[in-house]
């Protein structure tokens, strides 16, 4: 009798001891989810506002849509006119942005691919030194050089030209791109190259017919990253480009935002969404690799 | 002779464009800026050497102490958000959220500001601080029947710190979460079996594991914050007056707004020297090999 009673008490005791820590044990996880949810909410709301506001005629309290409309998207088929000034055509800006980001991508992949291969595989005096310098350049305050770059562009007659800015932007990013591509070349087996060389190819031919196809995923990641960073570029274009015919989407949007006579959030958010579309699409498709590259390579000027 | 030529030919070919580009837009600018810092070049683009007068001007500039204090405040508090909040995000999304897909979702959401073009990102903040009743903060005030406040004019520093902090946090988050992920799982299990509290796990397992990344992120962000000003330029333009102007932006304004290229270069040179010293520290602490590993993507 005594014994069973004791056992019963003991089991009840362990039961209560078990349930209370279990609840307590979950508490940190609940708090963690709570903190994460609350801090992430503003970001979600901001982007939701961007979407909703672009289709809204009027926003109550600034964030509740009153009436839906396509009026804000009119910039797609007619020029924006406000307070007497006509803004350049949006498609011209889009085309310029494409030319800028596209040529940046091509240059970076070609030059970075060649330099990355040389750094990874070729033996030449000064290789180690060049590698160190390349790495140091990435930490270098390129913004501080803007004045000197302005002087050089002016001297070369490339001021106020998209090509000049493409060259500057390529130069700023090429150290990191070369490093990233070098990493991919390092992973390719030497045997593949030996085989090519024994079959009578030159090093150059081996490079572009055998090795390059092997690092296609790396090339793709670098291309996407270069394209996006060109697409988002603002400061260089803003500093070195003056004329309307060379307007890109970034400067187009900035012109709209900074016009004090026109604070029309519907239009601004519609243009922003239009501008962000390629970014979102590329991000969704390549989010994982992009997240890693942008940590390694994201040199914002 | 011919073998030497052959040996040099291929590296020369492959590295040529690379070396031309970085010499033209990195090395040459360093030389130019050093020379320009000792001239009084203005919009007429004349090389008028004036010795140390730019640096004397720098010390006697009535705005300079204010700007240096701004720079310090901006870098310090933004860095605090970047590192501390980045660490919180890293721990929350990798340790507390065991489900990989949920953690990834949150991390992706936090990456949004980083991949958003700066102009669009700043528009979101302008809307947040809008002085009319359409801004977020003011519409909340309107709900409580308070009159709108000109937030950007009254708190420009807070605005630029918040906007920059939010972006930097995702950088720390990614570096820290990959460091936390590389901690062997049985370490956590052993700690739990021994009855360690969550706080003890964070303090004794996670923090020691992210010590090096923590230092790296701090130094790296310090370097970037000191020399970049894109978001400040877009958000407040350093104003009103000089209340949110930092040294890097001041150099930009001097050169591209006032066309004082000489003085702007002198300011830039100061930044370059600071950045070079910090890069040297960075390399010394982390060594070449560690940085070489971090530049890989897989």
TrEMBL record, chain A:
Task: List UniProt keywords, sorted A-Z.
Answer: Cell membrane, Membrane, Sugar transport, Transmembrane, Transmembrane helix, Transport
Locations listed in the record: Cell membrane
Pfam families cross-referenced by the UniProt entry: BPD_transp_1
Membrane-related topology note: Multi-pass membrane protein
InterPro entries xref list: BP-dep_ABC_trans_perm, MetI-like, MetI-like_sf
GO terms assigned for molecular function? ABC-type maltose transporter activity
From which domain of life does this come?
Bacteria
What positions does the domain ABC transmembrane type-1 occupy? 94-286
Q: Does the keyword Transport apply?
A: yes
TM regions (residue ranges)? 27-50, 98-119, 131-156, 162-185, 206-228, 262-285
Cellular component per GO?
A: plasma membrane
Single GO biological process annotation from the record = maltodextrin transmembrane transport
PANTHER family attached to this UniProt entry: MALTOSE TRANSPORT SYSTEM PERMEASE-RELATED (PTHR32243), MALTOSE_MALTODEXTRIN TRANSPORT SYSTEM PERMEASE PROTEIN MALG (PTHR32243:SF50)
Q: Which family does it belong to?
A: Belongs to the binding-protein-dependent transport system permease family. MalFG subfamily.
The molecule here is called Sugar ABC transporter permease
* Species of provenance: Collibacillus ludicampi
Which lineage do the record's taxonomy fields give for this organism? Bacteria, Bacillati, Bacillota, Bacilli, Bacillales
From TrEMBL, chain B:
Q: Where is the ABC transmembrane type-1 domain?
A: 68-282
- Highest taxon of source: Bacteria
Q: Name one GO biological process term.
A: transmembrane transport
Q: What is its subcellular localisation?
A: Cell membrane
Q: Which UniProt keywords apply?
A: Cell membrane, Membrane, Transmembrane, Transmembrane helix, Transport
Query: How would you describe this protein's topology in the membrane?
Result: Multi-pass membrane protein
Q: Could you say which protein family the record assigns here?
A: Belongs to the binding-protein-dependent transport system permease family.
PANTHER family according to UniProt: ABC TRANSPORTER PERMEASE PROTEIN, INNER MEMBRANE ABC TRANSPORTER PERMEASE PROTEIN YCJO
Return the protein name. Answer: Sugar ABC transporter permease
Q: Which organism is it from?
A: Collibacillus ludicampi
């Amino acid at each position: 009798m005594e014994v069973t009673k004791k056992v019963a008490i003991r089991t009840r005791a362990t039961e209560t001891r078990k349930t209370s820590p279990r609840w307590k044990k979950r508490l940190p996880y609940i708090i963690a989810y709570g903190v994460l949810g609350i801090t992430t909410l503003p970001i979600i709301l901001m982007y939701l506002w961007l979407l909703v506001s672009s289709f809204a005629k009027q926003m109550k309290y600034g964030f509740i849509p009153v009436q839906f409309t396509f009026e804000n998207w009119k910039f797609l088929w007619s020029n924006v006119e406000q307070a007497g000034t006509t803004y350049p055509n949006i498609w011209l800006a889009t085309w310029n942005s494409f030319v800028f980001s596209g040529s940046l991508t091509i240059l970076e992949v070609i030059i970075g691919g060649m330099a990355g291969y040389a750094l990874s595989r070729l033996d030449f005096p000064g290789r180690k030194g060049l590698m160190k310098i390349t790495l140091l350049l990435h930490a270098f305050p390129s913004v501080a050089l803007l004045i000197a770059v302005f002087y050089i562009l002016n001297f070369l007659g490339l001021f106020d030209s998209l090509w000049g800015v493409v060259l500057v932007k390529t130069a700023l990013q090429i150290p990191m791109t070369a490093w990233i591509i070098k990493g991919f070349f390092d992973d390719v087996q030497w045997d593949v190259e030996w085989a090519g060389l024994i079959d009578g190819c030159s090093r150059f031919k081996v490079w572009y017919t055998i090795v390059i196809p092997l690092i296609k995923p790396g090339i793709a990641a670098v291309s996407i990253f270069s394209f996006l960073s060109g697409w988002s570029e603002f400061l260089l274009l803003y500093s070195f480009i003056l004329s309307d015919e060379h307007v890109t989407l970034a400067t187009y949007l900035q012109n709209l935002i900074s016009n004090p006579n026109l604070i029309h959030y519907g239009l601004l958010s519609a243009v922003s969404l239009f501008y962000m579309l390629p970014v979102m699409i590329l991000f969704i498709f390549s989010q994982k690799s992009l997240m890693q590259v942008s940590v390694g390579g994201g040199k914002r000027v | 002779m011919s073998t030497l030529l052959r040996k040099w030919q291929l590296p020369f070919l492959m590295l040529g464009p690379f070396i031309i580009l970085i010499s033209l837009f990195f090395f040459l600018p360093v030389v130019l800026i050093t020379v320009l810092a000792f001239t009084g070049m203005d919009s007429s683009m004349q090389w008028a050497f004036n010795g140390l007068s730019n640096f004397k001007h720098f010390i006697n500039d009535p705005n300079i102490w204010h700007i240096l204090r701004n720079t310090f405040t901006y870098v310090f508090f933004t860095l605090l958000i970047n590192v501390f909040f980045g660490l919180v995000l890293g721990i929350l999304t990798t340790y507390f959220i065991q489900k990989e897909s949920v953690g990834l979702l949150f991390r992706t959401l936090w990456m949004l500001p980083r991949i958003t073009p700066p102009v669009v990102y700043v528009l979101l903040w302008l809307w947040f601080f809008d002085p009319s009743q359409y801004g977020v903060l003011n519409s909340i005030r309107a709900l409580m029947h308070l009159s709108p406040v000109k937030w950007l004019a009254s708190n420009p520093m807070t605005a630029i710190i918040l906007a920059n902090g939010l972006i930097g946090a995702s950088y720390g988050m990614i570096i820290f979460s990959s460091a936390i992920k590389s901690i062997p799982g049985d370490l956590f299990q052993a700690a739990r079996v021994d009855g360690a509290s969550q706080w003890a796990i964070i303090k004794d397992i996670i923090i020691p594991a992210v010590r090096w990344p923590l230092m790296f992120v701090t130094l790296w962000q310090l370097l970037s914050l000191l020399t970049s000003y894109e978001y400040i330029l877009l958000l407040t333009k350093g104003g009103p007056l000089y209340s949110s102007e930092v040294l890097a932006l001041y150099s930009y304004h001097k050169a591209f707004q006032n066309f004082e290229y000489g003085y702007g270069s002198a300011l830039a040179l100061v930044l370059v020297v600071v950045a070079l010293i910090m890069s040297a520290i960075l390399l010394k602490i982390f060594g070449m090999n560690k940085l070489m590993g971090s530049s890989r993507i897989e």
